[in-house]
Amino acid sequence: MIAGRYLRSRRRDSFISVIAGFSFVGIMLGVATLVIVMAVMNGFRSELLGKILGINGHMLVQPIDQPLTDYDAVASRLQGVSGVVAAIPFVEGQALVSGPAGNLGALVRGLYEADLKRLPLVAGNIRQGTLDGFDTAGGLAIGTRMAQQLGLQVGDNITVISPRGAVTPMGVTPRTKSYPVTAIFEIGMSEYDGTIAFMTLPEAQGFFRMDGKATGVEVYTDDPDKVGDYKAAVEEGAGRPAFVSDWRQRNMTFFSALEVERNVMFLILTLIVLVAALNIISGLTMLVKDKGRDIAILRTMGATRGSVMRVFVITGASIGVIGTLAGFLLGLVVCLNIESIRQFISWLTSTQLFDPTLYFLSRMPAEMDQGETIMVLVMALVLSLLATLYPAWRAARLDPVEALRYE
């Protein structure tokens, strides 16, 4: 009851109440910012990981010493390994693609139609055309961004140019061939939508002068986080000398940078909560100074030092608890509507707030992690509680005689 009265604003204590209000707002904004930033960082990692692994596979089996001519047999053996969901042979090469609106460098991949349909990121996101009859159509499936930049629609011809052409007395001449666009997909990651094109495996083998050979076999497992456990079985299941690498090795630098950025952002934003907690210390210290006579009267009426200390601990902790809960609710609302908020701010400022060419993704993701959110809330509550201890201890140590000497 006493702590509640100290929290309520009165004319004489208005300045102290203003400090308490700033402390509340600071903790609320600090917690909300931490929750939102951590959710967005988790969303980035999850979306990027899902996009990268949806196209590149969890493990890559490449030949050693001898070309991969028995790719169908290797894929069949790998398909039978425990934990392996799919094993897809492919041919890969870099080429220049050309359309009515310009030219682009592209990564061309050759896959069987059945294997291409096993990639849900591609098969489930066809915007124009179809993958049915892909093996016999002799065309290309390209991303929406590539189609826009080259000015292509389904049915238009796209010219593919490879530097590995025919050898003539005048040197090597680039190989050029025109293909119809049979399908346009949208993965949602600008890097892939603008640079990857799919063609049939036999056609890719002929175009890149890899007759009867494959670049490698991509292996998809039931749990990408357990690729280390499957690696030995995959190496054995290949049945031939092969080099096996997983997605963590191929993308180590990228995901390590994301992890470092995430940890640094957490430490920096924690300072916001710490500053708000220091406001609680200053506000309670001024409250103790102002309430010295009240504390002395309570002590002379029989209140113990522990009772006085509890009054001020409850006063400061109330600010921390209410501010933390309000910050969590604010962060939750923002995370659930992050894309709508982004679009509104972009409309309001007439700027592109989240450029997909810079951030790879076409939408802003947010994914709240239960453990991280609880850690943020506990940290804010602990800092708020610790901030109350010194002013409360000073109040409990106040001598009633000294406080009432000049009253």
Folded structure, characterized:
- The protein has 407 residues and is an alpha+beta fold.
- It has two domains: 2-50 and 254-404, no CATH class; 91-219, no CATH class.
- It is 57% helix and 20% strand.
- The chain is built from 18 helices and ten strands.
- Strands 2-3-8-5-7-6 form a six-stranded mixed β-barrel.
- A hairpin with a 2-residue loop joins strand 6 and strand 7.
- Helix 2 (14-56) packs antiparallel against helix 12, helix 2 runs antiparallel to helix 17 and helix 12 (252-290) runs antiparallel to helix 14 (305-336).
- The longest helix has 43 residues, at 14-56.
- The model has no long low-confidence stretch (mean pLDDT 81).
| Computed Rg | 32 Å
Percent helix, as a range, is 55-70%
SSE order in H/E notation? HHEHEEHHEHEHEEHEHEHEHHHHHHHH
How many domains make up the 3D coordinates?
Answer: 2
Strand order of the largest sheet: 2-3-8-5-7-6
The total beta strand count reads 10
Distance between the termini: 25 Å
Strand content: 15-25%
Task: List unreliable stretches of 5+ residues.
Answer: none
Shape: elongated
Number of helices: 18
- Mean pLDDT across all residues, rounded? 81
Structural class: alpha+beta
Q: What's the main sheet like? A: 6 strands, mixed, barrel
Family: Belongs to the ABC-4 integral membrane protein family. LolC/E subfamily.
GO cellular component, one term: plasma membrane protein complex
Pfam families: FtsX, MacB_PCD
Subcellular location: Cell membrane
